[in-house]
Write a structure and sequence with these properties.
Number of strands: 0
Structural class: mainly alpha
Number of helices: 10
Order of helices and strands: HHHHHHHHHH
Helix content: over 70%
Length: 207
């Protein structure tokens, strides 16, 4: 995880030194696909707001802006060159193009839910934007789901750190949030596997 590269002490130093700009920049870079602990920086920002070192509204606005801008950048990267890159990576791992097209279609069918709910899922938060661009999701729909997801996610994370951070340590709060993200990722993986198995069972009867 990104926090293994950037220690909590370093993230706290950034948030204390640069305040809202650290939150905005961290979330923006994470959502463009870089290994930056944007969620952790947001939690630290909310924690500092709860300690009256920052303003709640400022941290919330910075997190929302960073999430929207970062995902928009990722979307257009996926839209302009994502498919060719994905096809090239698929050829390296011997994945047939037909399989990639099927995955692209499946994401397209659930793009709105993926962009909105992906905010709360580890890894999907980073890749939802580029995948939406690759799948050709209409930009107007992406913008709506992206903005709505950014507002709900930022409000939940900042409020959690602001209020619960007064009762538990920041380290414990980070553990809880990380565990939730990993559980959500595991649930998504199980759902994807079940969907694939069911589609494989139905395939022979369709021939």
């Amino acid at each position: 995880m990104a926090l293994e590269v950037f220690s909590l002490e370093f993230v706290q130093h950034l948030a204390e030194a640069y305040g809202y700009w650290a939150v905005l920049g961290g979330v923006l870079l994470e959502n463009t696909g870089l290994p930056i602990p944007g969620e952790t920086i947001t939690l630290v920002g909310g924690f500092l707001a709860g300690s009256d070192d920052l303003r709640y509204e400022g941290v919330l606005a910075a997190a929302i802006a960073g999430a929207i801008l970062g995902d928009n950048f990722g979307y257009w990267l996926g839209r302009w060159g994502g498919w060719s890159l994905l096809s090239r990576v698929g050829s390296w791992f011997k994945i047939p193009e037909q399989r990639l097209l099927q995955a692209k279609e499946q994401f397209s069918n659930n793009a709105m839910q993926a962009v909105f709910l992906g905010r709360f899922v580890t890894l999907l938060r980073v890749f939802a934007g580029p995948l939406a661009g690759i799948a050709g999701m209409p930009y107007s729909k992406f913008l709506l789901c992206n903005a709505a997801g950014a507002v709900v996610w930022a409000a939940a994370i900042v409020s959690l750190a602001f209020f619960v951070g007064r009762l538990v340590s920041l380290e414990q709060l980070l553990v809880w949030v990380s565990q939730f993200g990993l559980l959500a990722l595991a649930a998504l993986a199980v759902w994807g596997l079940a969907y694939w198995l069911l589609s494989q069972r139905r395939a022979p009867s369709d021939v």
